[in-house]
Amino acid sequence: MDVVNQLQRQFIDYSASLHREGFLDDQFTQLQKLQDDNSPDFVVEVASLFFEDCEKLINNMARALEQQQGVDFKQVDASVHQLKGSSSSIGAMRVKDVCIAFRSFCEAQNREGCLRCLQQVTHEYSLLKNKLQTLFRLQQQILAAGGSIPVVE
Amino acid sequence: MDTLEQNPVHKDDYNPDLLEPSPIQEEYAPVVFAQDIVSHVVSIDMLSGQEDSKNVLCARKSGKGVLTAPFRLLKTNRLGVILTFAVYKRDLPLNATPTERIQATDGYLGGVFDIESLVEKLLQQLASKQTILVNVLDTTNQSYPISMYGLNASNDGLEHVSLLNFGDPFRKHEMRCRFKQKPPWPWLGITTSIGILVIALLVGHIFHATVNRIAKVEDDCHKMMELKKQAEAADVAKSQFLATVSHEIRTPMNGVLGMLHMLMDTDLDVTQLDYVRTAQASGKALVALINEVLDQAKIESGKLELEEVQFDLRAILDDVLSLFSGKSQDKGVELAVYISDQVPQMLIGDPGRFRQIIINLMGNSIKFTEKGHILVTVHLVEEVIDSIEVETESSSENTLSGFPVADRRQSWKGFRTFSQEGFIHPFSHSINLIVSVEDTGEGIPLEAQSRVFTPFMQVGPSISRTHGGTGIGLSISKCLVNLMKGEIGFASIPKIGSTFTFTAIFTSGSSSSKKYKSQQINKMSNSVSSEFYGMRALVMDPRPVRAKVSKYQIRRLGIHVEVVSQWKQGLSSICRGSNAINMVIVEQEVWDKYLNNSTLFFDTLEKIDYGTPPKVFLLSNSISSSGANISTGVCNMTVIPKPLRSSMLAAALQRTMGVGNKGNPCNGQLNSLSLRNLLLGRKILIVDDNNVNLKVAAGAMKKYGADVVSATRGIEAIELLTPPHQFDACFMDIQMPEMDGFEATRRIRDMEHNINNRIHHGELSVEAYNNVSNWHVSILAMTADVIQATREECLRCGMDGYVSKPFEAEQLYREVSRFFQ
């Protein structure tokens, strides 16, 4: 029991810190609520999809921005738009915020700015991936120890 | 000379006894013939007297009649004159010399005139009614007039002088006449004229005064007109000032607050967030201050009007309670509200202003109270009046928190409502409330108590520095109370506390519900009370006042309440009682004193053999203390922080007892439940090119019980939505690479239109199309960017609405409920 409690407390604290630091927002909580007995791994599935999507989009953007002769800002913008959409659906707040800034650079056709933003997005994405993986690991541990995942309001 | 000449008689000389023969003279003039009446003058020598002789000689010389001076006649002694004519022997020419005349004289003729009788006889003929005094005078010698007739005149009065001519040129005579009696004062004339004069003076004076007064009044009137214009101008200026200040100050303030709000939504670190929050708090305080001052100005210019709206008094007090609960918990002051059952559920009046008054009073209480309690009570005036008669001795310990308070009865001592004469029996629909706010704070110093309701007055200059505020709150409250036709008063004992009481008149709200707009009725209380109705609760609280408050709040949920002051008593009644008790509510004080270290209580509870053991709730004063208590290891006790509110109690009950709505009846949960109702079993198509979005949206829909099909391309959507199909609705993403949402929707609509036409014309059979002849599937746009897809654009291409990505429960409910009922 103690182990479970400890793990649960760890989970709650970690979740709270993620929210506090802005990695996740309310949408992520909503996602967690969607998870139930019918779809027990809902959140993990969505997160995996998101990571795949992210990597694909980031690669697209990197390739487009590397073009020495004329960057196709429209394409970059489209990718950023996609990324923004996904990140808001999952509740990845910091990623979304970077995307917003990214878009304005695209509109201004500012290559330097775009590159910087791309760097930032990559950074945020890796951070988030790590954090979420830690979170999911904790969840697994709790389930393995026989406890239930606490709902964080 | 002849000796046969007549002589007039000298007046002095006549006395027959004294007569003597005349002396030897050259001439004699003896009277030869006389009338009978003057027969005594016969043979008297007229030349013997001096006057007479002069007279005779003069007559002889002049040939004219000559009058003597008046003298006393012989014998009669009356005043008279003698007129002497000379008789000549022959006619003498007019220019005859005196010598010739003397030569020709034959004799003399004399007439004796008795002046008195003459005048009297004349006067008798001539005199009028008035008695006239006549003086006849011989004025030959001007300085010595000889009086011939009449008394010696007194020269006063008016005299009429007329000349008499006897025919003698050498003598002058005059007659002076005057009235005997002085003419009387013409009294009538005098009086009349004086009267007229006086009247004229008076009239003149009145006239003058009137004119003056008119002038003065006109003058004053002009001045007043001027002043009135100035006053009106000032009033207009004031209203303009109000309007301008109202607008001008509030606009930038709202701008500031709005911007701060938006700033809060952006990416901020912890310090920045803190700063923004502080700025917001200051801004809100400033707006509140401005509103207060403007209220005061509005009241002064009489422009404040009260609304007439239906409202729930208990809901208002719940709001106010939540407003102050944080602060009171921080200070450790217990906050409680009690509303009598006789106060009706709905009232008609101005809820905002009523709230304002209560917030003012409670704000003051919170400011100045560091310990003890603040208790707000609402009763009907009728209830309180009845209790006035009964002199209940209230011990000072018998209060909510045990601290003494200022007696509330003192606070309404002077109210007209309670005096015999003043008590107006209310109309059938009018509700006369009496509200008291009692606190155990510092109290108001005695010398300041008279100034309490004066605007801008604070107890000391340091108050605004330590506590803030402008000091207008109470004066505004007083004006508002007056507008509500009530009275406000207070009783305050320094270092003990203050109790403020006010009355207000409302009308009962439930009867005429059509006429007035109704504020949103708190659905919560209605829906929740039905769930707990009939349950039984036991309250353990040694203080009756506090227990009454708890009982009131619990009974609002429809729960039957029993109060005990001793925990052992409670325990026995739980175990013994025939009616099952569903919950036990323990006051913190009881817990701290007796039950904290005792397991007896919970063990006994668990051992109850009938039904489920009652749930235990702890009413605690502050959140922090609640944490410590859970460590007893008792997991079936829930902490409810005070101030006790029905809503919180209901929430806690629901959580522990699992009764009623699954979620707390806050809006979100309400909507999710209703969404579930709407979407259960519906077949929904979700179209989005982004996998993540698609999965999330599909997951949300599945949660509500819908049957979800996903698609990633517009073309797929068109295929799937070609009639006949089973879909009830479609959520379509707008931005998709190959074919965007608008285009897809347009094509779908065309397709539907086409098929509908063909069905109507009979080209296609309606049975083949599931007997539906007007295909129109509801399509909702999903958009991450509201600017991108306005409502008009969506509607233009045939969509039925739009929701944002990711889904937001309330908006989703709003949109979806339009199609699914």
TrEMBL record, chain A:
Alphabetical UniProt keywords: Acetylation, Cytokinin signaling pathway, Cytoplasm, Nucleus, Phosphoprotein, Two-component regulatory system
Any single GO CC term annotated in Swiss-Prot or TrEMBL for this entry: cytosol
Main location: cytoplasm
Domain topic, free-text comment: Histidine-containing phosphotransfer domain (HPt) contains an active histidine that mediates the phosphotransfer.
Domain HPt: 39-142
Compartments reported by the entry: Cytoplasm, Cytosol; Nucleus
Species the sequence originates in: Gossypium australe
PROSITE patterns, alphabetized: HPT (PS50894)
Protein name: Histidine-containing phosphotransfer protein
Signal peptide extent: none
Coiled coil: none
One GO molecular-function entry: protein histidine kinase binding
Classification via Pfam families: Hpt (PF01627)
Any one biological process term the GO annotation gives: cytokinin-activated signaling pathway
Record PTM Phosphohistidine, positions in chain: 81
PANTHER family: HISTIDINE-CONTAINING PHOSPHOTRANSFER PROTEIN 5 (PTHR28242:SF13), PHOSPHORELAY INTERMEDIATE PROTEIN YPD1 (PTHR28242)
Protein's UniProt keywords contain Phosphoprotein: yes
Task of the protein: Functions as a two-component phosphorelay mediators between cytokinin sensor histidine kinases and response regulators (B-type ARRs). Plays an important role in propagating cytokinin signal transduction.
From TrEMBL, chain B:
Designated name of the protein: histidine kinase
Assigned EC number: 2.7.13.3
Transmembrane segments: 185-207
Organism: Gossypium raimondii
Lineage: Eukaryota, Viridiplantae, Streptophyta, Embryophyta, Tracheophyta
UniProt topology in membrane: Multi-pass membrane protein
Subcellular location: Endoplasmic reticulum membrane
Annotated PANTHER family: HISTIDINE KINASE 3, TWO-COMPONENT HISTIDINE KINASE
Enzyme class: transferase
